[in-house]
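Sequence in, structure out. First:
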Amino acid sequence: MGWLKTVIFMQVMIIRLVECQQVVDDDYNGINTTQLGDPAVLNRFTAVVYSRLSGVTSDLIHSEIAQRAAFCVTDPDDDWNRAFNYSSNLDFLSNCILKTQGTLPQRICTAAELKFYFSNFIANTKSAATFLKPNRNCNSREWVSGCEPGWACSAGFTQRVNFTDSQEMPVRTTDCQACCEGFFCPQGLTCMIPCPLGAYCPMATFNASTGICDPYMYQLPPGKENHTCGGANIWADVSRGGSMFCSAGSYCPTNTQEIPCASRHFCRSGSSVQKPCYKLTSCDSNSKSQNITKYGLMLIVGISVILFVFYNCYEQVINLRERRYTRSREVAIKSVKENVQAQARWKAAKVAIRKRAIELSRSFSRRANVVPNDQQRVAISGLREIEAGYPPIQEMEECRDSFQDGNQEGDEKDKKKKVKTRHIRTDTQIFRYAYSQLEREKAEQQRDKNITFSGVISMAIDNEIKRRPTIEISFRYLTVTLKQKKRRLLRSVTGEILPGRITALMGPSGAGKTTLLSALAGKTVGCSISGLVLINGKAESVRSYKKIVGFVPQDDVVHGNLTVEENIRFSANCRLSADLPKKDKVLIVERVIESLGLQPVRNSMVGTVEKRGISGGQKKRVNVGLELVMEPSLLFLDEPTSGLDSSSSQLLLRALKREAIEGVNICMVVHQPSYSLFNMFDDLILLAKGGLTVYHGSVRDVEDYFASLGVHVPERINPPDYFIDVLEGMVKLHTSSGVTYEELPMRWMLHKGYPVPPDMQKSSSAVDVPTMYGNAGMQENNGSGTEQLSFWGEFCQNLKYKVEARFDAIKNNFSKSKDLSKRRTPSILLQYRFFLGRMAKQRLREARIQAIDYLILLLAGACLGLIAKSGDENFGAPGYTYTIIATSLLCKIAALRTFSLDKLQYRRERASGISSLAHFIAKDTIDHFSTLIKPLVYLSMFYFFSNPRSEFLDNYIVLLCLVYCVTGIAYMLAIFLEPGPSQLCSVLLPVVLTLVSTQPKDSQFLKILTRLCYPSWALEAFIVSNAKRYYGVWMIQRCGALLKTHYNLHDWPLCISLLMAMGVACRVLAFMGMLSLQKK
């Protein structure tokens, strides 16, 4: 019976062997696993196994798991090549085939088992599990040795394993043994998974002292004495599966081989190849990274040299142009003066000789037939010699006419006699033309010295004097009331200001002088205006003539970092007619500089509070010159003589007289002018407190009018000072008529026949008011009957007035009036060019401040690069977080200076009709230079000290977009806020928004809030650009980190676009704020 059992057992084994042989023959193209000792058979079998393995892993990359994990996979084929392409070396497969005696195909995980494993690490979008769930082979009822870490089992030869089946796991519980080298066997699965490229998976060794299988840190199962340490057990992120990663300083060409990095090469953790070090870097053997700080130093030195050369060359170019410009002007001045002096000497000599000749002719007239004696011959010969020594009049006139336009009308005979004119191209020719015209004007002014009455008449009838379009303003019963306090600033003011005359607006403090000036100029905000204002007899807005209307503010609103000539020239370029030739523009600029006495300081900086420039009186004249140079037809001046001495004030008035002769309507507020200055005005508007008119008429008649009221000016007292003292109540009137200073406004109304308000009639009972003036419909609410409001009522009322005032300001800014000025100013593109040149000069003169900005960025990059080294676990997230805070803060504070320092200058230029769009775009264009340079300066230290895996260009693009974004935000803060709050917000915003962006996204609200913060876009772009450089064994680490932060590798272009869009949107809002916001 024993032998029978043996025969039966042998037959069963033969049948099993035949079945096994049949399975192998069918599955592996006839390869017999019993012949694996033959190298040719082994190579064929290895190729077949690798083909099956490649198919499984490729299907894994392209399967549903990969689709669910698309946030961390950009190119599936590239990721597969970097992780599972073992075609260069299949030794680990051959060794494992020999070790398992050909059962390796029965031990490799199928698609279902791979899906089960990787779903726990990269495909679960809610949480990343740290253990495998129970499955068909490993559960609470069945737990074979292959379920332990580092071990695997075979599926046996009786069942056919379908590697492409992703739904059902095969039963795999037989022939359990240790995992092969180059494979890892996770706890809870009984199959083997190949280790990815960049991993090092040797067999584990038991450490008796710790009881752990090194280097994989798992323990042997208790109660199983025959169980030994197997292979690798887990492929996960570096914190849990870091023992599988190829160690830093070495590279792993295969997953079973680790080679130390050679000299002049470096190997990061998880490297499959060694990378050569750059030149000038120090890389010893076993180097983990290359020291590229030298390249950072070279970059910063290169940037410094380029900036130094650029700034110096640009400055030299500007200075050279200015010197050539100045030299051309000096040559022209010298030439013109020499011609004038020569002409004057020639004329004087000619007059003297002719006079002497006339005397001699008279003395010898009675002896006509007598031969001339020697004295007469000498006189005649002397006349001829002197005439020969000087050019004739015709030649001098031709020299002057050669610098004038040749398109003058005249008779045919005159045209033939004139010398052919030359085209004026060079600066010397332009200046010679300008100064010849100025000398001619000086000669005419000398002829009518001190502008006497005859001189005014002669200049008025002079046809050669250029006439401008005239603007006449008349106003009837003009009343201005402050909306918030219901207080009248002006009351029933009636009068007119005429072209060709200078009207002085005087009165005590609080009389409403500036209010009347602003009301006529259309600059009143927050007030209700009643009455009628007519422009040339028509009810039109003065805004329709803003291109030919000048307004000189009380404060000296000029650019302190420009010279006197640059300020005036810029105003002329942007505000004069675009059709005006360049030579005429230069003439106008030179005339203004000459007439205001600014010739000695024309090349001097105006100066600021921190840096002294020209004197206060000179700055005041520059303030006036900005409006004179645009050749206005209507000119308002608010206290232009304040701070000027008597001579400077007379110089200014003489310049204004010259403008008035050309038909300019001039109205100016003055305080206590001298008597000589007072007599230079044509008309006077005298206001009393409360905005009431006391006198409006000719300056010559004011003393007679007050004398008719019994108000006589004492001797040796300046009349305007006395009148103001009277209106202030400082002088007690002793008049026979009994007129008090309170009754003077009503006396003027009665004198002119204007209606008198009823309350003024009651308060002045001593004066008999005719009935015809009593019923004039002037019922006005003086505010005495207003009821007392509660606290909240007053608060709501004040809020209402503020909203209305803001609405009125926005309405005035955006309202478009019909242009009636008939002047075509330069286009936006041409003004943009002018702004660009001005801004370049201003920034060049602030080179020291910009150098400090670059130095601070440099130090910040060096410190943060040393402190926050790029970590592989988080892809350098801490360092990038600090980078966002530092660059946002520093660049915002620097960008605040662009719009916060010259708000007053901008408002003045905008009110005069200069393009706000050209102003804004020019400033932003100049800031683009810093936007391009600052990321380079910062990264030259940070990148080369932290040495991340991402490319320098990727980091530069992200930081460039970030700087562009925060610069736009800084524009908004500078325009909408005052300097103090804007600086505070520039510091707080980057810190707060970055902290919000780095918070865990536990709720939907936090996710939405985070996506609205610009630091989250920049941080995602930084991390994504770095994470793309992690592949192979780092795949799960990459996916896990991105899963935790909710980042997506595909969103890098989106983040860049959002940063740029944010920068553009902030600039648009900032520009809208420039148009809508006004000075409070």
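Second:
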Amino acid sequence: SITKQLVKTSTMTMFRRGYGAAVLALLAATFTSSTNAFSTKSPAAFVSNSISKQNGIQHVEPFSTSALFMSTIDSPAVGAGVKTVEQYVKERGGNFPIKKVLIANNGMAATKSILSMRQWAYMELGDERAIQFVAMASPEDLKANAEFIRLADSFVEVPGGVNRNNYANVELITKIAVEQGVDAVWPGWGHASEKPELPESLSKNGIKFIGPTAPVMSVLGDKIAANILAQTAKVPSIPWTGSFGGPDDGPLVADLTPEGTIPKETFEKGTARSVEEAIETARRIGYENGIMVKASEGGGGKGIRFVDNEEDLKNAYIQVSNEVVGSPIFIMQLCKNARHLEVQIVGDEHGNAVALNGRDCSTQRRFQKIFEEGPPTIAKPDTFKFMQKAAQRLTQNIGYVGAGTVEYLYNADTDAFFFLELNPRLQVEHPVTEGITGVNMPATQLQVAMGIPLNAIPQIRAFYGREDIYGTDKIDFMEEDYKPIDSHVIAARITAENPDEGFKPTSGTIERIKFQSTSNVWGYFSVGANGGIHEYADSQFGHLFAKGANREQARKALILALKEIEVRGEIRTTVEYLVELLETKEFIENTIDTSWLDGLIKEKIIQVGQPDDLTVTSAAIFRAFQHVKERAAEVSEALAKGQVSTAAIPGMNAFNVEVAYKDTKYPFHVVRLAEDIYRLSVGDSVIEARVTETAEGALLATFGGETHRIFGMDEPLGLRLVLDGVTILMPSIFDPSELRTDVTGKVVRFLQDNGGEVKAGQPYVEVEAMKMIMPIKASESGKITHNLSPGSVVSAGDLLASLELKDPSKVKKIETFTGALDIAASSLEIDPKETIKNILAGFTGETEATVARAFENTHSLEAAASLVAESINEYLRVEKLFAGRLKDDVVREMTKANVGNLAVVIAENQAHMHLKERNYLIQAMLRQVETFADRFKSTDLPANLEAALTELSHLKEKAYGELAIAADNILRQSKIPPFADRVAELKSILVDPATDFVSLSKSSTLSAGVDLLTALFNDKDDAVKRAAIEVYVRRVYRAHRISRLALSESGGKFVCDWTFQFSDVEAKNSVDRQGQLVVIPSLDALKTDMSKILDGFAASIGDKPKTAGGAPINMLHIASATADSVNPSAIESIITAEEAKLNMLGVRTVNVLVPHEKSDPYYYSFTQCDGYREDPLRRNMRPTFHHLLELSRLTDNFDVERIPA
């Protein structure tokens, strides 16, 4: 019907616009919070997570697709119904319905195949469960939480270990296929996908192999046979074992035997059967361009080595033979300046062959692809079209059935190409083809296996521009061209490899994969959260595909996606390195070749890293955070066991951490200023960092004016730090005589005899890791002793051999860091009120300065009182838990009450254990309370503060004594009458005839009223003035011996002269000193009166001594009678102008007193030792306090700072 056709056309439009095989998974990802675009965890796009066992077979329970999910995709082609596989196959002209498939693979291959075929089944048949999938699951894959196991309908457990035990075991695969009653086996890539024995064995049991027949696979899957076949078809080839490029040495050609194979004698001529034959072949080809040693049955970067000399060839031959056991080996000349281009072909059993454009896979390291892209824009269109047609002819001529890849080496300068090989299987990069053609490759394989002609497959028809995509009319694929490609796709392989160590494979757990598909970038992963990469797995565990209208758009989209991806776990990944590669000039301009990346790696041109000092600081922050976390866990564990010791708690707030990096040790001292604030000190640097932990375990650390994202993991060989997306390995400092492995795997062989000599930088052992043979090099020269034997299984960090160093003196010395780190100096801006809370919680802080800053911006009595009251109440809350009780009993009771949250117990004990610091804080706050009357012009205490002080004053234990007394004094002071009343009371005492001024000046009752006397210097009653001045002088100088005191009046000014001695020196040995206090009407009169004041003082001194030991001994006091506005600089200018006279009179200090209305006066001291400039330390200090406090001695020996109060 028209409606049916429109629905189907809409479905195919979706494929043409986008990502073919990924459409359904992308739609599912739109409605899931999972970070994996192809994850099936929530909501379940394909399967549920419910797993059960029946008869020893693992089954994944089916589910019903949600209405929400169903409403987001195009309606299936069957209208309201569901079409069966049988109906579809019959309509399409097929002959073999497939309803149950065994996935004979794991990892990426198994994951992608199930996703793609399920997607096709739903879009075409309306039932994603129309085809059942049985997976094979090794113990390692089960432990690694492999994604394909979750996707499958059921799985069968298979033996673990190397792939010959499981996924490459033909006998086992056939047995499972028969027992499970499957219709077909999908082999994927790698493992048994290129073993002719598998399709042959399955065919005998009536089971379809989704791929080529055994004879064709035999001849094409073998690289030697494929080269002979290509030469027979006159496809250009480069010099190799079967053709040395000379006039009389080949090329080898052969007619296929009736079984469809190359004659044995011809095949053997293309084989290097020993190291000696390989050396002879290499000599004939020549080392000028380099030599490739290749396993005929290798692939995916395995079983291939590059050498340029005979010695390396010997080792490479052994490595290749160990890597692909039993495979014939051949030698081939390296094609320099070559691009690796490939054509995606599909053949059917009806003799059709189609080329679905191709891919450029030139970005490789160790001959393993890193990026793949399509279409290949480097080749001239006509040339690439010719390459496609040649691939189609080759496919047709040999009767190839299924998907395959014809690979070429292409020289962009000469436009020449050479046959490389034909892979008789699907390749991991096939989604690139899906992205530019709209053809679902695994589903196309499935349909071809069902016997459906290529011209009847809807997606193929759409690609060839057929409007009737559900028609069945013939298409001449050799003559007709497909529609123009209007987009570009670049793919990036996500691998578990260490780019810092030449892309060595790594294995281990994966805690988290964070990736979100977008409209133009999608990807899938073979493992999920809490999964892993085991040592028998392929290193690739993810694949990202970016699509754009052109190559540049696709490149930029891929870069953005890679910058957002985050893989957390024990493995290393290449993600950061890939970003750097994509941003190189060569990649942008597309001038690379197959040797480009290996050259960059060898020369270490691309360095992915961070500044050393930033790295070191971040590592220290990570270690500090981990220290606190681990120590808290230890204390919590001890408390949970009933232990009551809290001795370990202080070690959470002050401790040392050491970081080693690039032969330097950095000993950091760490102090916690708050739950999330760390102060790190090393060398001359002090760094404050605010550190918070995200839900996924990363640290966000703010320091040096920037915020950095930090994740770390301790490994056997050191700390792996991920800093702002860049992975950095910070090795532990090992003994150079210990040779350790940095990979997990198996020892293959040692390259020197036990006791033999090895040179620094020379390989000493080969380890098999993730199906690759990896040489490990010695770090120093010396005599080697093997600690393990070949075949031993090893983990990263294990000791492989010991080294008797040839020259111990040449070993690098580890230096301890001195100096300053290159980290921007910037203290964290912390609200002082927050700091007060932190100090009360038991953290470190600058008490006095913090309290002063907290009150600087407090402008009301209520706010100030609340701050103090809240602080006291928090102090009391903790201390009342412990006051008068045994600490062990308190801890035991706390633990019982907080069994579900032992962090509370730690916090309360931490606060109490820092009682001394908390006492200092409360004392500093109480000193602020003493200033409230002046600051806020009120002696009344708000009720909340009075209540807090009252409770504080009632604390009985010795540890609280000073606080209790101070609180009680403040409460008492608050009861003192207002200023005016106290002045009036003092005045009445002064005018009382019975008052003895000498006794009054020494009375303790005058302590609170000394400064009140200055308010009477301007009293209307001269008798009061005189009395106030005399008592004031006698009180201020009560620590001295006053032998003479006389008051006089001159020119309307009251003057007091006295002679005094220091009382700590015997009278007979003490110097007589002269003092004078002059009361002037106001500060305005000082400038005009200063000279007269000095003349008067000179007259008073007369011929008395002015100096002692060369130092001035006399004191001059000037008091203003009125409360003037004060400009200390102006006063200083007036006084310094008279410096000569002052020196002549032996004036040690000039003290200026200015009344402050209804409050204590201001005091300013100008000292002779500073040229009569004001001493800021003495500001508002009574004139003789500096002597009593010995400030002169303090300032001579210490850097004294006046704290605002």
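Remark: The two ends are 92 Å apart (CA to CA).
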